[in-house]
What we know:
Elements: H1 6-33, H2 39-66, H3 99-117, H4 127-150, H5 170-188, H6 204-223, H7 231-259, H8 264-278, H9 299-321, H10 330-348, H11 373-402, H12 409-414, H13 416-421, H14 430-435, H15 442-450, H16 479-482
Helix pairs in contact: 1-2, 1-3, 1-6, 2-3, 2-4, 3-4, 3-5, 4-5, 4-11, 5-10, 5-11, 6-7, 6-8, 7-8, 7-9, 8-9, 8-10, 9-10, 10-11
Amino acid sequence: MPEIDxxxxxxxxxxxxxxxxxxxxxxxxxxxxxxxxxxxxxxMHSFIVIGLVSVIWVLWGYSLxxxxxxxxxxxxxxxxxxxxxxxxxxxxxxxxxxxxxxMVFQLMFAIITPALITGAFAERAKFSTFLVxxxxxxxxxxxxxxxxxxxxxxxxxxxxxxxxYDFAGxxxxxxxxxxxxxxxxxxxxxxxxxGREAMEPHNIPFVVLGAGLLWFGWFGFNAGxxxxxxxLASSAFVVTNTAAAAAALTWMGMGWYFLKRPSVVxxxxxxVAGLVAITPASGFVGAWSxxxxxxxxxxxxxxxxxxxxAFCYLATRLRARLALDDSLDVWAVHGVGGTWGALATxxxxxxxxxxxxxxxxxxxxxxxxxxxxxLAQLAGIGATWGxxxxxxxxxxxxxxRVMGLRVSREEEVAGVDIxxxxxxxxxxxxxxxxxxxxxxxxxxxxLASEDKGRxxxxxxxxxxxxxxxxxxxxxxxxxxxxxxA
Length: 485
């Protein structure tokens, strides 16, 4: 029986906690990008996914993703309810940590992946349908793709499959969620007033706070995927930070060039794009002293980061030109960023960093004289794009027939915070509370009656309903800088 290493176990458990904090970070990031009348529902989407997917994962999700293989496509229910998943190590996945530690680390990836999709249909989704969608998508889409890439006998992965490199989730998490977001944007349709009314981020400090939490948690996401406290974790940590920094600077610079100002939202979005792109490569490129013969060891991370900042920024502009209402640009950042990262992994992966065999058993990518590794990367990209898009669109179309995807027109105009949850994101005074139809205490009712006739302060979200008041000019005429995830 393999011996459990306390240091490795502590690092993986700490990394799991770091990845968990990314989902509340995503909630702030997305919450700041929407209008004020929809902030609470947007945050709720991310928060409730933690609860829903946690239950699904320990019951059947983990077993389907990592359990005994069936044709390289899916696991089975042998580990239902964590049967056979205990304190002993499973050498197929991590020989020096408890199997439960590996399971809970993977849980955090299963949580954030569907949470990412929610940015595509923000401000218009029915909450009841949303819950059913997340349960179905996690089971039918996420679990199979995770099995293909990361399970012992998955048909795409490095543990017995085609040999497509994905260290921490470029295909499983980011391409998967980004392409699902594209399908969701098409299935849900455009928000009311899209393209005619200003839909500015209502709280940019939330966006920056969320991006900071994502950056912080991403060290667990990538460095934790080494499932050991050692040199590979250290290398993944360094390249993760480097790519994020390079992408933030690149996106900010491109926005500055095109729009004549350095956008705060753009810098935050660029950092996220860099983190996305380095994810599949983080365990295959690195800052190692053995990188010689003209191979500058940190350059791949810088190139991947710069590419992510540029390609994802341009993708947001393309999305705007196509008038596609992916509300928070999930496809542009995660779909395009994940695709670039997966391709770049096939180029820059080097045997100096990884010992994992890739396509046809070779180690490394194009820079190691193995251009054929790009074939495996393209296979992983193509399979994930195709499966995720088709299955996501089919699930949503069925749910639309059965339950309906969107809130009513009146509910959307009022805001989904009130229409779906009966609570506003912000209450500035008792009069606003009464207007939001929130039950008040007798003392509050008395104070509210005394407040009659006084001039009310304006609500925090000043964006008017169509036909009411003078419309503000947009802070940013380009959706690429004002509505990005």
